[in-house]
Every structure is written in C-alpha cells, then in structure tokens.
Amino acid sequence: MKNMNIFNAEIPQEKIQSAINKIDEAFNELKPYLITLQPEERQMLPKMGNKMFSFVNKVHELAKRNPDLAPSFFSIEDLEIDVAGAQSLEPLLNAVKQLYDGIDDTRMKCGSEAYTNSLAFYSSVKVASKHSVQKAKAVYDDLSGHFIKGANTESAPAAENKPA
C-alpha cells in the first residue's frame, strides 16, 4: 500500500525562529495602536462585513458633504478615524489571515498524517501482540493506555477511529 504522506518537508528551526522574530517585530510595531476585546465585547459589537463596508464608506462621504444632517452626538472626525482605521487594517488582516491559514492547514495535515501513521503502527503492534511476537505485548500495553474509555476526549480517539 502506498504511503499517502503529502507533507514530507522538515521546516528548519532557523526558519521557524526567523518567522517568529518577524511576527514579534510586526506585533511590537503595531502594539501601541491595537486594542484587546473580551469575548463578550466581541459578541456584542455590530459587525461590519464586506456589504456594510460600502454602506459605511457612503455614509462617511455623505456625512462630510452634509454635516448639518448629522445628529448632535455624532462626530464626523471620529467616523473618519474609524473608517481610515478599518481600511488601513484590511490588507494587514488579509496578509496575516493568509499566513495563519497556511500555517494552520500545514499543521493540521502534519498532525493528521502523524496520527494516521501512529494508528497504523498501533494496529500492527496490536496484531503482533495477539500473535505473541516478542516485545509487541510491552509496546501494545504502553500504547493501549491512550485508548482507555473515559480518558481525555482530545487525546483519546473516537470509537470509530479506534484501530481494530
């Protein structure tokens, strides 16, 4: 049976560290301008998606031309700062999202391949143990503890993933 490993490159630790350093540098560069929201704050905020972005831009344009129509509590200057902030952060967010997605996809694939190969090894050891192959029982006993019912669900595979 052909090995279906797609990820077969080891990323040099120097490359990882260099990327971390650059990410830290970018974070420190922007840190004075960034805010932190609590989860409940994020949930309560009205969200401006792509469709609303054009609405907000149109309001911004019309409010600047018609300041007499703005309510007394409304600040066109604050709106300008907010619109400029949202616009300037968009390309940065897209670049970071692209990097995040690539890292996340690669890590997921590596983890999946490692887990699949580990299950194949475990299944082989289990069969070898049943056939009294030397050393197999000790290896099987060591590994089988990861499949104890009631164990942490994150580390224990679901019943349908448990090797036969």
Q: Tell me the Rg in angstroms.
A: 27 Å
Low-confidence stretches: 158-164
Main sheet makeup: none
Order of helices and strands: HHHHH
- Strand elements, count: 0
- The level of helicity is 55-70%
Would you kindly provide a brief summary of this structure?
By secondary structure, this protein is mainly alpha-helical.
Blueprint of the fold:
Elements (H helix, E strand, L loop, with lengths): L12 H18 L8 H6 L5 H16 L10 H55 L5 H9 L20
Helix pairs in contact: 3-4, 4-5
Outline the structure in words.
This protein is elongated. Helix 4 runs antiparallel to helix 5. The chain is an all-alpha fold and 164 residues long. It has a domain at 49-161. The chain has helices at 13-30, 39-44, 50-65, 76-130, 136-144. The protein starts with 12 loop residues before the first helix and ends in a 20-residue tail after the last helix. It is built from 5 helices and no strands.
